[in-house]
Amino acid sequence: MKNASFVISIDSSFEMLDNFFQHFLADSFVKESEVIIVNDCINNIKILNYLNQMRNQNNIKVIDLEEKVGYGKANNIGVDEASREYIFFINTDVFAEENCFEKMYNHLEQNTCDCVQPLLIWPQNNRIQCAGSFFGPYYKNHLFAGRRLETIALSSFPTTRQALTSALYAMKKDTFLKHGKFDEFYYNKLESFELSLKLTLAGKKCNCITDAIAFHSQGAGRGQYYFDFYQQEAYFWTHMGNKITPDITKYYAFQITEEMRSGIFNAIAITQTRNVKDTIDLLPLKTCSYIEINGINPNKINLYDLLPHSTHNLEMPILFFVENITNLLGNKKWFETRKARDIVLDTYGNLLYVDQI
User: Fold this and answer.
1) 79 vs 85: CA distance, rounded Å
2) What is the chain's Cα-based Rg?
3) Domain final position from 243, 277, 299
4) Are 216 and 145 in contact, with CB atoms under 8 Å apart?
5) pTM of this prediction?
6) Which of 61, 182, 212, 306 fits 100 for a cystine, CB–CB 3.0-4.6 Å?
7) pLDDT tens digits, 266-288
8) Residue where a domain terminates, one of 214, 243, 272
């Protein structure tokens, strides 16, 4: 038997739950663990019948809530019912590869960290969804989101992160309780992220182990509902903003090659993010010019429409800064006919040559 409890708060479609549990309950690690399912006031008859069938399994306990309370509170209730030392939180749109849970468990048992998450990948395109979380100046993001795995040597990066995502993460139950559980002010946003950050600020270690992999069909769980997160974001930054140290440049630095260091770039920022030039100036990259283009939908970047022909013909390489590297995917011909090898940075910590996107 594993000394682990899975806490799963559910509030999604029958189809997603069926796919999730068929995959999840077949895992050998799960079969030896305790499973606490918290029904956050779902009244769909197909789901209720499905949960009733699972109540008969020895390692599963189903808790039915009479009113919808949201992710944080539902999970807190589940942890109170958990009887084992290590707590795993997992969303019902996450599909873990074989041995993923075992690898996470081993890191906790061996005390290499206090909170652990695997590498999360989008099943839709096999790109990275989250390799832990980091902070830029006045923003936070999932590290390396949008990146193709073959373009980055993840093993060369440190595993410690300031914060993690509980789409799938684990820690000791005592750690969870000691640091205040999930803040129930939040409804479906930031509660798990904030707790992992609190662990870091308390001297605990939060790690993303990239040899453990899970696929996150993001937005297919609670994402079916509309939530207004403006107030919750304000609450987070009011409470935690002055405790945060931006660390995005640390991740950029690990990706800078000798060829990049020896070049001189024209910098073009196509972004709504402010103070981009300040961030670029902190890097060991040489730039001779800087242009900022605002007011562009990041998902509709057309370089033929934004830049004159003279820019396309520049022999000097360009350093692009965009919200996410995938925003440039619709410009294949523009880059194929460039004479210089351009690079791109984004707000998710990615830095690479454009032809690697």
Assistant:
1) 11
2) 22
3) 243
4) no
5) 0.95
6) 212
7) 999 999 999 999 999 999 999 99
8) 243
With vertex at residue 127, the alpha carbon angle to CA 212 and CA 306, rounded to the nearest 5 degrees, is: 150
Question: In which residue are the tokens 């008969």 written?
Answer: 56
As beta bridge partners, residue 291 has 268
Residue percentage of the chain with pLDDT more than 70:
97
Write out the two tokens for 109.
Answer: 């048992």
CA–CA gap between residue 98 and residue 89 (Å, rounded)? 17
Which two structure tokens, joined as six digits, stand for 280? 């670029």
Non-local (6+) Cβ contacts of 177 within 8 A are: 79
H/E element, 293: strand 286-293
Residue the block writes with tokens 């440039």:
328
Nearby residues of 81 by Cβ (< 8 Å), 6 or more positions away: 36, 61, 63
Residues 312 and 166 in one domain: no
Q: Is there a single domain that holds both residue 203 and residue 275? A: no
Structure-block tokens of residue 290: 């800087």
Contact 352, 257 (CB under 8 A): no
Beta bridge pairs of residue 8: 37
Helix (H, G, I), strand (E, B) or coil at 340: coil
Question: In the numeric block, which tokens belong to residue 195?
Answer: 């707790």
Determine the Cα–Cα distance for residues 42 and 151; give it in Å rounded to an integer: 42
**347 — pLDDT class (breaks 50, 70, 90):** very high
The rounded distance, in Å, linking the Cα atoms of 216 and 167 is: 8
Residue type present at position 216 = H
Give CA–CA dist 225/231, Å, rounded. Answer: 17
Q: Decide if 10 contacts 68 (C-beta within 8 A).
A: no
Reading the block at residue 6, the tokens are 């899975």
